[in-house]
Amino acid sequence: MISFTGSTRAGIAISKAAAESLKKVVLELGGKGANIVFADADDKAVSCNAPTRMLVERSAYDRAVEVAAKVAEETA
């Protein structure tokens, strides 16, 4: 079995390759759903997504901006 989380383009390529050997495939090809961040969110967790937008509880906003800025600096 192949399990994949990622882009649609990569998912299509994986599906085609898996079809040749009739492997079972489970794909999560994302979408445009916003991440929702509540004040009690665990911001130390590992994430396997690349959000394009977030809905943040007002009381957690400053912390969410701080964490997002730190991650952006580390990946630049």
Describe the structure.
The structure is a single chain. The protein is an alpha/beta fold and 76 residues long. It folds into two domains: 1-31, no CATH class; 32-76, no CATH class. 36% of the residues lie in helices and 18% in strands. It contains two helices and four strands; from the N terminus they run βαβββα. The strands form two sheets. The protein has a two-stranded parallel ribbon. Helix 1 links the parallel strand 1 (2-5) and strand 2. The longest helix is centred in the last third of the chain and has 15 residues, at 61-75. It starts with a strand and ends with a helix. The model has no long low-confidence stretch (mean pLDDT 86).
In terms of per-residue confidence, which ranges show pLDDT below 50 for 5 or more consecutive residues?
none
Query: What overall form do the CA principal axes indicate?
Result: elongated
The ordered string of helix (H) and strand (E) elements is EHEEEH
| CA-atom Rg in angstroms | 17 Å
* Span of the ends, CA to CA: 35 Å
- The domain tally reads 2
Which features does this protein show?
single chain, 76 residues, alpha/beta, 2 domains, two-stranded parallel sheet, 2 helices, 36% helix, 18% strand, elongated
Topology record:
Elements: E1 2-5, H1 8-19, E2 25-28, E3 35-37, E4 54-56, H2 61-75
Parallel strand pairs: 1-2, 3-4
TL;DR?
This protein is an alpha/beta fold. It is 36% helix and 18% strand.
